[in-house]
Amino acid sequence: MKFMFRLAVLLAAVSIYGQEPVKLTRAEQETFLREAKIEKMRSARKGITDSQQATLFDGKLRHDASVQSIDIAKSEFKTDKGTELNFKDSFKFNIAAYRLDKLMDLNLMPVYIERKIAGKTSSVGWWVDDVIGDEADRKKKNMTPPDVDAFNEQMYCVRVLVQLTANVDANQGNLLTDKNWNLWIIDFTRAFRLTRTLPNPKDLVKIDRKFLKALRELNEPRLAEALRPYVTNDEIKSLLKRRDLIVQHFDADMAAKGEAAVLCNLPTR
Ligand SMILES: Nc1ncnc2c1ncn2[C@@H]1O[C@H](COP(=O)(O)OP(=O)(O)O)[C@@H](O)[C@H]1O
Ligand SMILES: [Mg+2]
Fold first, then answer.
1. Rounded to the nearest 10 degrees, what angle do helices 209-217 and 233-257 cross at?
2. Stated pTM of the model
3. From the CA atom positions of the chain, what is the Rg in Å?
4. Contact 184, 138 (CB under 8 A)
5. Strand partners for 84
6. Cα separation of 144 and 17, whole Å?
7. For a pocket test of ligand 1, which of 171, 174, 182 has the largest count of ligand atoms closer than 8 A to its C-beta?
């Protein structure tokens, strides 16, 4: 009897230990980030703003989150890339970018929600599981993806999202690769610029077929409904101008080189 009991305990332990981490849907991740208790907070490595890594627990699941509460606006600001007019650095843009990613069903960004933490309204982002490195690590360690084309296609789509949102801080530290070679882009606090031109049109190489369709379907009312109050009307109008340029670019490219040279199909995550 005692032996049978021990065996049952052992089997249960092995099955729990051998399990993959629980996979929550994005809606479940949003609820978790909104409601789970914050167990601890510490500074996130490498960051330039005061971003924090928190550990949350809801009684069943323990998971980390990225917490940013920065929210500044300056008419002029000196960055390492030169002086920027109408400079903003805001947690609100993490939430807006995630909502845009969700609206277009891209899954290139982790979930971000708004929550008040230690008295400060903040963005709280799902900590990406099993990160094997950011782009700087990957290049330094010469880590080659098993399927180079599939990885590059994710990178092209991430770059389209960066141009669309005019994210001027899309550096290598904000591009994370997980163990399944999914690429994730984080940290949009310096996005949604008012520029009506593309920050770097050379970054437009290829685009996922569904992503291009979703771009064509964006309009002011849909964006306002999804992204407000995290962006202004002017920020939405500028995004739509950049959308027009992106769509024009890919349409012209397809007319010149054919669809196969321009469109790709990202696998669903
Ligand atoms: N959601 C996340 N998942 C995994 N790692 C993250 C996440 N958010 C932040 N990090 C890590 O913390 C670092 C700093 O966070 P980030 O959001 O980029 O803020 P900062 O504005 O300080 O650059 C990132 O470069 C990354 O290594
Ligand atoms: Mg960063």
1. 140
2. 0.91
3. 21
4. no
5. 77
6. 30
7. 174
Which residues in the chain land under pLDDT 70? Answer: 1-21, 45-49
CA distance 57 to 39: 7
Q: How far is the C-alpha of 25 from the C-alpha of 38, rounded, in Å?
A: 20
Measured in angstroms, how far is the CA atom of residue 149 from the centroid of ligand 1?
26
Q: How many angstroms does the Cα of residue 174 sit away from the middle of ligand 2?
A: 5
Residues with CB under 6 A from ligand 1: 44-49, 51, 66, 68, 110, 125-128, 131, 134, 173-174, 176, 186-187, 189
Cα distances from 150 to residues 107, 154, 164, 243, in angstroms, run 15, 7, 21, 24
Q: What is the pLDDT of residue 79?
A: 86
Question: How far is it, in rounded angstroms, from Cα 263 to Cα 28?
Answer: 32
CA of 131 to the centre of ligand 2 (A): 15
